[in-house]
Design a protein that fits this description.
alpha/beta
Length: about 260
């Protein structure tokens, strides 16, 4: 089992604290099934002649950076290679700064441990963490793996700097407003997620791009998956992670979205 990156340095009065949804993503991405899938898709060429560029891994809404750090620090284990590039994006400037610190601390720790040759870990390379809105800072078809733990809680409105139509709104700098960016999802908890889904076809790599998106029961994940399949024949959706089946309203799923290949 891979260690959960430390977030002890993060100011959780301003940044979303890792919770059940964060840990479900870590468990899903490090499961035997997903490691096998990711290694087959991005790992060593195993004698193939085709050239392989370093995969770009992007997390939208990094919060503390625990998921982005997990993917970066343990790249060798999760992807079968260590030459991955990672990028974080968050609308909360404090989250951007926290993410960079989380990645740097974990990668330093892993690199120190690499002195023990029995540990097959190798870290990727963090480009930076960008203060921005969803995929607005990303070049078309450049993302190989996109991870999104969205603001999925159904609310009467979206207290973010951007409304559902993408237009900029007034937003206070108060700490409570900053934290609300991480959970308030508007109608059915899907207003922000729907915007991201609309952007997926244009930002994912056309041949190998995939996305992991977390949803709760109130987001109607079965309907979301069916809507994605209706984009056209190449698109495939699989449920690769589940949590909270036995109690509580927050029953979570992780969808893996990709063009068929």
């Amino acid at each position: 089992m891979l260690p959960t990156p430390s977030t002890s340095h993060v100011d959780f009065d301003r940044v979303y604290e890792p919770a059940e949804d964060s840990f479900l993503l870590l468990d899903t991405l490090s499961s035997t099934k997903e490691v096998s899938f990711l290694t087959e898709r991005f790992g060593p060429l195993k004698g193939r002649n085709a050239e392989r560029s370093s995969p770009l891994i992007v997390e939208i809404g990094t919060g503390s950076g625990v998921v982005l750090t997990f993917l970066t620090a343990y790249a060798q284990t999760l992807f079968g290679i260590s030459d991955i590039l990672s990028l974080g994006i968050d609308i909360n400037q404090y989250a951007c700064k926290a993410s960079i610190q989380t990645v740097e601390k974990a990668c330093q720790s892993v690199n120190d441990d690499l002195q023990d040759a029995s540990r097959p870990w190798g870290t990727g390379f963090l480009l930076t963490s960008v203060n921005g809105d969803l995929t607005s800072a990303i070049r078309p078809e450049s993302v190989d793996v996109l991870v999104f733990n969205p603001p999925y809680v159904p609310t009467s409105g979206i207290p973010t700097a951007f409304a559902a139509n993408g237009e900029k709104q007034a937003c206070s700098d108060a700490d409570s407003d900053m934290l609300s960016l991480s959970y308030a999802g508007g109608m059915e908890g899907m207003e922000v997620t729907n915007r991201l889904l609309e952007q997926l076809p244009s930002v994912l790599n056309a041949s190998r791009g995939i996305a992991y998106i977390l949803l709760c029961k109130q987001n109607k994940p079965d309907e979301v998956a069916q809507r994605i399949r209706q984009w056209g024949a190449p698109w495939m959706v699989d449920v690769v992670g589940r949590s909270g089946r036995q109690g509580g309203w927050e029953k979570l799923r992780v969808l893996r979205i990709r063009r068929g290949s």
